[in-house]
Amino acid sequence: MDKTVKMRAYTDPGSAQPTSKQNEMDLELAARDAQLADERNKSLEQLKTIVQLREALKQEQAKTAEVSKRVNELESGLQQVTSSCADELARKDAQLEAEIKNAVDAESKCKCKELQERLKQEQARLAVMPDQPRMLEAKDKELSDLKAKLQDVSGVLSKISSIAEAAKLAGKA
């Protein structure tokens, strides 16, 4: 976009062309004015671009600050959620441990009662057992006595029967 101005490298001072020299200077001046105007336009465009870029930078900085603020809020919320979840998890763990302990304790108590009942039954059975041999001995003695009495009664019955037969025979004779 640079404009080139053609100028003579050497002008002869003796030549009598004052108007042409003036025209050349006017042309040169016009070319420089055009070049200056062009540079001014470029400068204005660049200044507008700089202003736009500054505005865009401010907007981006505002967006960045807003995003940073939002990120901080989200991180804070995440930390709160994480801590509340950790608290809730710890509470549930403690509750489960307590329930397990209660269940184990209840089961242990039930087993303990059951074992105590079995022990009592076994002790009662064992307490009766020493009497059983004595009872059996007593029944055996009683049975022996009854056998002896039965033999005595059998003997007496046989005598009665023989007397009755003898009387029957004597009554027939």
Structure summary:
With 173 residues, the chain is mainly α. Helices cover 88% and strands 0% of the residues.
The overall pLDDT, averaged over residues, is 85
Could you describe the largest sheet, including whether it forms a barrel? none
Gyration radius, in Å: 68 Å
- Find the count of extended strands (DSSP E, 2+ residues): 0
Give the overall silhouette. Answer: rod-shaped
How much of the sequence lies in strands comes to under 5%
Helix content: over 70%
Number of helices: 2
Number of self-contained structural domains = 2
Order of helices and strands: HH
Low-confidence stretches: none
From the helix content, strand content and strand pairing, which structural class follows? mainly alpha
Distance between the termini: 186 Å
Q: Care to describe what's here?
A:
The protein has helices at residues 18-128, 131-172. It is mostly helical.
Keywords:
single chain, mainly alpha, 173 residues, rod-shaped
Q: What does the secondary structure layout of this molecule look like, with pairings?
A:
Layout: H1 18-128, H2 131-172
